[in-house]
Amino acid sequence: MNISAKKLQNRLGREPLSTSLMKALRLTDRLDAGELRAWCRLELGGYLASNPAMTDDIVIPEYRSIIGQHADIYGRPLIVESDLSFVNETRLRYGVEELEALSTSRDVVTIHDPHMCEMILEYLKVQVYAFRFSSVHLKGILSAIALELEGRLYALGPQTEVDDTRVSSTEDEVLELRPNIYGIGVDLRALWRRWKG
């Protein structure tokens, strides 16, 4: 099956963003697209020290910024003056799959960012423990990542196409077990179409 940058662009929004990023990563593995490959790995694995794609010179992108509120260990919020409102913003390091899972919740998300907690203690002399934000805001971050992916795929050019049998799409039927009157069997029509195509 052929996979192209254009096909991936058309699939955005129809499948989970993590799936689109995996397909883009597979596409870059067959092309000379090292920058896009590194970016896909960062978005999938997160901007974490444990991710091999993360280097000292990489900064978490601004589109991963989220507004919330810091709180101490007892849940008391940190109230800052309007000229310090940037303190109530952080950039999320988590991989896209984790962000997708968190976005399905309707709860307030609480995370612990030791780096930010140390900075607030050092510069504001206030000890905070957690950062809280609404999971609804994650939809915006996921949309921003999808737009970034679309732009990067567009830069590859619409003619960029490689053969990749490991990536499936809804355009090509996948062999699957289906119940029938005899029990469970393989969809032979899908098998025939795959064999023929």
How is this structure best described in words?
The chain has 197 residues and is α+β, with helices and mostly antiparallel strands. The protein has one domain. The chain is 40% helix and 16% strand. The protein contains 7 helices and 9 strands; from the N terminus they run βαααβββαβαβαβββα. The protein has helices at 5-11, 17-29, 34-45, 96-103, 114-124, 138-156, 188-196, and strands at 2-4, 65-67, 69-71, 89-91, 108-111, 130-134, 161-163, 177-180, 183-186. A 3-stranded antiparallel β-sheet has the order 3-6-5, with no helix packed on it. It has a two-stranded antiparallel ribbon with strand order 1-7. Strand 8 (177-180) and strand 9 (183-186) form a beta hairpin. Helix 1 packs antiparallel against helix 6 (138-156) and helix 2 (17-29) packs antiparallel against helix 3 (34-45). Mean pLDDT is 79; it is low at 162-176.
Helix- and strand-based class?
A: alpha+beta
Q: Radius of gyration from the CA trace?
A: 22 Å
Largest sheet: 3 strands, antiparallel
Could you list the spans in which at least 5 consecutive residues all have pLDDT below 50? Answer: 162-176
Shape: elongated
The share of residues in extended strands comes to: 15-25%
Q: Please, how many helices? A: 7
Q: What are the secondary-structure elements, in order, as H or E?
A: EHHHEEEHEHEHEEEH
Number of strands: 9
Average pLDDT, to the nearest integer? 79
The amount of helix comes to: 40-55%
Strands of the largest sheet, in order across it? 3-6-5
Number of domains: 1
In angstroms, what separates the terminal alpha carbons? 9 Å
